Known about the structure:
Order of helices and strands: HHHHHHHEEHEEEE
Region (Disordered): 56-77
Subcellular location: Nucleus
Protein name: Transposable element Tcb1 transposase
Shape: elongated
Strand order of the largest sheet: 1-3
GO molecular function: DNA binding
Organism: Trichonephila clavipes
Structural class: mainly alpha
Amino acid sequence: MPGKRARRHFSQLSEFERGLIIGMKTAGWSTHRVAGQVDRSECAVRNCWEQWTREGTHTRKTGPGATRKTTRREDRRKVRQALVDPTVTRSTIRADVGVAIVPQTISRHLAEANLKFKHPFRTLPLTPEHWQLRLQWCQASSMWNITDWPKVVFSDESRFVWGTDDNRVRVWRHLGERYNFPHTFLRHTARTAGVMVWGHSL
């Protein structure tokens, strides 16, 4: 595949390929011939050979990475904000820190503290009356047979969003804290005619 071959042409050389290039160049092969043998660009072969002749090594140097724009103190401040207010947005955190960083950087820093931005678990504020009604329905339907269940309609809701923002509230939380307060939200349970929840109307 031409596209796949082009991507391989400019990807990083492996240690094995670097050793092959140096061996073939030491044997007197031309750069063009070596590039065709290892299926790499002539530029990659030339750079590998020049590094060997200049430094005596073919090991690829690793860069130090991008410079961190925030201090450790500012990073701790971001984590503290997410713990105090789990619903705080990345824009609010960035404005409070006062450093020009992209939202992905904030998410990455909070991920280092094992904090993920997740949808809150929504629960129904059930009253003792709800519990009793559900128990009665379960007891009444425990002996239903295959002809009774087709009369029950189970509904579900799906959400479709055209844009990038779904206007849903998210919370910062650690792994295993999905059902812990304040990471849970209450759902609306207003009584509506004709709406059935677990077999009884609300």
